[in-house]
Amino acid sequence: QARAGVIERCEEAGRVLDAAAGDFDALRGLDRGVGGAVQVAETRFRALTGRTAAVESVLAGLARRYAPSASDQVTGHAEQARDRLMFATVHLNQARQAADRDERDAAVAHLRAAEGAVAQTAVFLDGIERLSATLDEAAALVPAALSGAEAERAAARTGPAGVPAGETRSRVLHLDGVLASVRQELASGRPYDPLDALRRIVAAATPLGAGRTGVLSAAALLLARSAVAGATGFVTTHRGAVGPEARTTLAEAERLLAVSGATADLLSADALARA
Predict the structure, then answer these.
(1) Domain locations in the chain as residue ranges
(2) How far apart are CA 180 and CA 140, in angstroms?
(3) Does residue 226 contact residue 170 with C-beta atoms inside 8 Å?
(4) How far, in Å, are 33, 150, 254 from residue 113 at the CA level?
(5) Which of 72, 78, 59, 64 is nearest to 195 (CA)?
(6) Which of 47, 160, 196, 230 is 20 to 30 A off residue 126, Cα-Cα?
């Protein structure tokens, strides 16, 4: 019932926004002419076109430094950005031509299409740059997370209250295996996925319940923020393909990220956003 209520409110919000489209146009001055708005869109279009090659270089750098799985979140983003720019080119030209002929309605329609494509291009490019920065941050955090997990292990000899000793030993052994695996990846010198490494470390250490090191909470926060940002970008650029259940799941991930600093909740936010 709660989910149905959320969906109903979202649909109603969409209807209200559609009904107010004319008022928004008036606020932007589109009721008086679209020439100025077209110029603004063209300026932003040119700026994004200039960024595209640089961002593609960033993406190539990710492929050199990290395992392929590390950039899964932005697979195809560069190509889709170029596709959106091509789409924007067509509609900006048509908007300009319609404006020159004083065909306001046609000009506004083409302008809106171009603006939408330009906005989506920015989301794709921002996503690549954001992931690059996040992966670098994660890679720098992995050694500290390993040390933090070792500290959690040492502090959890007796295990969380109410947990049988055998279960605690099982959790410790699992953590030992994860830490050994991550250390082996680092020692190999081969590209690896630092976000995945952090995720495995935090997920294995959290059940011990010691909670004495802030580095694992920081790692969980980085994971949740990255996953939520990636999912939000996907929803923004694929609105028609994203159903209400996925939107509700993302909303719950956003809620957990916003209101909880608990490591377990941040891991849940990460998992929900990647679902």
Answers:
(1) 21-129, 133-274
(2) 18
(3) no
(4) 17, 53, 29
(5) 72
(6) 196
Crossing angle, helix 104-155 and helix 165-188, to 10 degrees? 120
Rounded to whole angstroms, how far apart are CA atoms 245 and 273? 12
Of 29, 40, 123, nearest in space to 76 by CA: 123
User: Tokens standing for 225?
Assistant: 């923020």
User: In the numeric block, which tokens belong to residue 39?
Assistant: 């110029």
Q: How far apart are CA 203 and CA 163, in angstroms?
A: 17
Side chain identity at 123, as an amino acid letter?
Answer: V
For residue 129, the surrounding DSSP H or E stretch is helix 104-155
CA end-to-end span of the chain, whole Å?
Answer: 22
Sequence-ordered strand ranges (E) for 92-201? none
Give CA separation, 163 vs 113, 151, 170, 172, in Å: 58, 19, 11, 13
pLDDT tens per residue, range 53-106: 999 999 999 999 999 999 999 999 999 999 999 999 999 999 999 988 989 889
The sign of the torsion formed by the CA atoms of 169, 167, 207, 138 equals positive
Amino acid at site 90: V
Q: What is the DSSP letter of 209?
A: -
pTM for this structure?
0.82
